[in-house]
């Protein structure tokens, strides 16, 4: 049964089918291009620099639910070398209602939006990346499921002509990300060990 998510594609298996979600269009599975850690699924947009990461991380019991998304955001900022003051900023953290989610096993779910100034491959030039972060807390499985949507704020010089090429070049939207969060479904809790 398709839910009433307008124009949503088919659900896509994650972690060998233990999870699934509706992923956006023009998606490339990065694991076909390079080695990805076992606890991650990484997808790239075929025509933009956007990427999506679905990650299983250890449940941080010492971090309160309302602080957990920010905790993981700062952890990502650290690995992006964006930790100095002003290099990252959280613009919003909202709780997602379980009634909107397929993954009702979570104790709470959060969506954070923020920005990080990231240098790619240790270049001097820094790019501002908007980061949308979805967090599902599963204390009963000692796991936090973290979904990161990296949306670099770069504007293509020929954007007006790029728009006429057709939808496949369209960047992913926050709506695409929210649909992924809402359709994330757990099929096999054995995934969490």
Strand content is 35-45%
How do the strands line up in the largest sheet?
Answer: 3-4-5-9-8-7-6
Q: What composes the largest sheet?
A: 7 strands, antiparallel
Number of strands: 10
Low-confidence stretches: 1-7, 155-165
Helix fraction bin: 10-25%
* Topology pattern, helix = H, strand = E: EEEEEHEEEEHHE
Distance between the termini: 29 Å
User: What's the alpha carbon Rg, rounded to whole Å?
Assistant: 17 Å
**Class per helix and strand makeup:** alpha+beta
Helix segment count?
A: 3
Shape: globular
**What is the typical, i.e. mean, pLDDT?**
85
Which key features would you list for this structure?
193 residues, alpha+beta, 7-stranded antiparallel sheet, 3-stranded antiparallel sheet, 3 helices, 10 strands, 16% helix, disordered N terminus
What do these coordinates show?
By secondary structure, the protein is α+β, with helices and mostly antiparallel strands. Residues 1-7 and 155-165 have low confidence and may be disordered. The strands form two sheets. It has a seven-stranded antiparallel β-sheet with strand order 3-4-5-9-8-7-6, with helices on both faces. Strands 1-2-10 form a three-stranded antiparallel β-sheet. It is globular. A hairpin with a 5-residue loop joins strand 4 and strand 5. The two termini are 29 Å apart. It is built from three helices and ten strands. The chain has helices at 65-79, 159-163, 174-183; strands at 11-14, 19-22, 27-29, 40-45, 51-58, 88-95, 108-118, 127-138, 143-152, 185-186.
């Amino acid at each position: 049964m398709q839910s009433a998510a307008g124009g949503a594609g088919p659900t896509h298996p994650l972690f060998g089918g233990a999870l699934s979600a509706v992923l956006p269009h023009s998606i490339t599975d990065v694991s076909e291009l390079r080695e990805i850690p076992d606890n991650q699924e990484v997808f790239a947009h075929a025509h933009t620099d956007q990427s999506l990461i679905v990650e299983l991380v250890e449940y941080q019991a010492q971090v309160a639910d309302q602080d957990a998304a920010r905790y993981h955001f700062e952890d990502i900022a650290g690995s992006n070398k964006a930790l100095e003051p002003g290099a990252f900023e959280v613009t919003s953290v909202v709780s997602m209602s379980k009634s909107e989610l397929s993954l009702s096993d979570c104790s709470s779910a959060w969506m954070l939006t923020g920005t990080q100034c990231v240098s790619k491959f240790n270049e001097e030039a820094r790019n501002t990346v908007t980061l949308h972060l979805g967090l599902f807390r599963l204390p009963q499985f000692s796991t936090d499921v973290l979904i990161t949507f990296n949306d670099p704020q770069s504007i293509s010089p020929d954007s007006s002509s790029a728009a006429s090429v057709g939808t496949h070049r369209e960047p992913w939207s926050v709506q695409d990300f929210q649909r992924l969060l809402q359709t994330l479904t757990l099929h096999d809790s054995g995934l969490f060990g």
